[in-house]
């Protein structure tokens, strides 16, 4: 049961990270620009983030296994379409839209199925460790695998690889048993889905614009058509997008409250936002994915821009982090039997913080490759422990009836963290006027500070988590 779920998570994470090493190659081959390819990658992120909560709700209506299989079919169709793309349009339709929609449909059932199938903490942690390890491996190894496949064969072969993996998952997933719902399927809240998608779309879009316009003063004119809306030096348009998103999300919350008062099915139950343990766990998830994606982005750009390494060698440089993620994820079940999930989250943040500090202390523009190993190994090990434990804490905070809702919310927060990590690190590097490693050190120092903040959130978590009760609203 767990193998197809882990493979599904791997291929979704791989799709989000491998494209970065093939941007120039694809752009030259299909006759577009680097900006066009970056737009396609941004649209993939936006589509997946915006539809994660509605996609999760569909698991309560269609069934978890059905939603997983539907997502795989949509995702595989998108990858197949992108394989034969001769222009940017088919890349956007296949990769950005269909693979984004497929990811939003298939990722939430992965975590729901494990939560409802394994009730004891040790087993659940073990299999969350497998899936989280697959997520981390897909994100971390995506550039390496994508670089190898693109260099040895073609960028199209990377999409063919995804099609083959998806076909394998569909065959394996046929044997998954989906426990039947104990309650009637809810009605789909279409207006709530539109509000949540628009709100998350604008928030994530604003975050992604930070590398272009900066976080505070706009680095260049912000125009719509030929009209200058904000002149260079004015307030960054990032906050306009984020403010629009925040207003829509506030409207979304009021809409949920209104439906609940009318005894109608909301897209997501508002009681999810009143669980202190889950809220803190979501805070640690946001920090973890921000650190993981932000750090990997900074280090990848550093070794390519400053040290002049190609995509394949960049992936090899990151391999100690991959080893750390896999080792700690594989040990998740055994660790969960000896320590509480809260203890593991705290230990993970401490390990990650030490790893980032070691990296800053050892790595220089001309230092040996060995200087990358200690810091990356600890970052990978720390993040691997935290990803597993935080997911376990969040999902386990609610009974089975809420698993669809909390899975979508949890995945949305993780996507938000990933987008924020890359945008934050990228905006600092883009703004730097001093060549060399200085801006990269600043970016990693910020990742270090975020790791410390995440550690503080982790120490607010209760030492032992109370069991969820079906009757609690």
**What coarse outline follows from CA principal-axis ratios?**
globular
| Sheet with the most strands: spatial strand order | 1-2
Give the helix/strand class. Answer: mainly alpha
Task: Tell me the radius of gyration.
Answer: 21 Å
Characterization of this structure:
- The chain has 473 residues and is mainly alpha-helical.
- The protein is built from 18 helices and 2 strands.
- It has helices spanning 2-17, 23-30, 34-62, 64-83, 88-117, 121-152, 155-173, 190-208, 210-213, 238-261, 276-305, 311-317, 319-330, 332-338, 341-362, 372-396, 403-431, 438-458; strands at 222-224, 227-230.
- The protein has a two-stranded antiparallel ribbon with strand order 1-2.
- α6 (121-152) packs antiparallel against α13, α6 packs antiparallel against α14 (332-338) and α11 (276-305) packs antiparallel against α18 (438-458).
- The radius of gyration is 21 Å and the shape is globular.
- The model has no long low-confidence stretch (mean pLDDT 85).
Key structural traits:
mainly alpha, two-stranded antiparallel sheet
Q: Which helices and strands, and how do they pair?
A:
Blueprint: H1 2-17, H2 23-30, H3 34-62, H4 64-83, H5 88-117, H6 121-152, H7 155-173, H8 190-208, H9 210-213, E1 222-224, E2 227-230, H10 238-261, H11 276-305, H12 311-317, H13 319-330, H14 332-338, H15 341-362, H16 372-396, H17 403-431, H18 438-458
Antiparallel strand pairs: 1-2
Helix pairs in contact: 1-5, 1-6, 1-7, 2-3, 3-4, 3-5, 3-8, 3-17, 4-5, 4-7, 5-6, 5-17, 6-7, 6-12, 6-13, 6-14, 6-16, 8-10, 8-17, 11-16, 11-17, 11-18, 13-16, 15-16, 15-18, 17-18
């Amino acid at each position: 049961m767990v193998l197809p779920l882990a493979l599904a998570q791997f291929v979704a994470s791989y799709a989000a990270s491998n494209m970065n090493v093939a941007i120039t190659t694809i752009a030259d081959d299909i006759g577009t620009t680097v900006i066009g390819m970056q737009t396609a990658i941004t649209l993939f992120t936006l589509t997946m983030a915006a539809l994660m909560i509605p996609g999760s709700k569909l698991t309560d209506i269609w069934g978890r296994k059905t939603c997983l299989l539907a997502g795989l079919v949509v995702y595989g169709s998108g990858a197949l379409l992108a394989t034969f793309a001769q222009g940017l349009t088919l890349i956007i339709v296949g990769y950005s839209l269909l693979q984004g929609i497929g990811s939003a449909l298939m990722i939430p059932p992965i975590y729901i199925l494990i939560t409802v199938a394994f009730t004891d903490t040790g087993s659940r942690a073990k299999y969350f460790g497998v899936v989280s390890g697959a997520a981390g491996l897909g994100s971390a190894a995506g550039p390496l695998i994508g670089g190898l496949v693109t260099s040895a064969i073609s960028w199209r072969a990377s999409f063919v690889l995804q099609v083959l993996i998806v076909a394998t998952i569909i065959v394996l997933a046929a044997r998954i048993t989906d426990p039947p719902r104990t309650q009637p399927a809810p009605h789909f809240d279409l207006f709530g889905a539109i509000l949540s998608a628009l709100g998350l779309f604008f928030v994530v879009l604003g975050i992604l614009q930070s590398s272009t316009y900066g976080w505070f003063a706009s680095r260049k004119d912000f125009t719509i058509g030929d009209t200058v809306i904000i002149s260079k030096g004015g307030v960054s348009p990032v906050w306009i997008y984020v403010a629009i998103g925040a207003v829509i999300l506030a409207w979304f919350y009021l809409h949920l409250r209104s439906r609940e008062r009318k005894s109608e099915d909301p897209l997501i139950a508002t009681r999810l936002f009143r669980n202190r343990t889950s809220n803190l766990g979501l805070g640690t998830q946001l920090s973890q994915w921000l650190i993981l994606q932000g750090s990997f982005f900074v280090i990848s750009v550093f070794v390519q821009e400053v040290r002049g390494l190609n995509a394949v060698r960049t992936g090899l440089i990151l391999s100690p982090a991959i080893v750390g993620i896999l080792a700690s994820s594989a040990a998740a079940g055994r660790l969960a039997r000896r320590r509480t999930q809260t203890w593991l989250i705290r230990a993970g943040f401490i390990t990650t913080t030490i790893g980032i500090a070691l990296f800053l202390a050892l790595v220089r523009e001309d230092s040996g490759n060995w200087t990358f190993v200690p810091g990356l190994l600890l970052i990978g090990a720390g993040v691997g422990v935290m990803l597993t434990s935080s997911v376990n804490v969040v999902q386990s905070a609610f009974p089975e009836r809420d698993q669809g809702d909390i899975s979508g919310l949890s995945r949305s927060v993780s996507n938000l963290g990933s987008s924020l990590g890359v945008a934050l690190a990228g905006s600092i590097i883009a703004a730097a006027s001093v060549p060399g490693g200085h801006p990269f050190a600043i970016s990693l120092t910020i990742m270090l500070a975020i790791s410390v903040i995440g550690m503080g959130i982790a120490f607010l978590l209760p030492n032992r988590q109370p069991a969820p009760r079906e009757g609690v609203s």
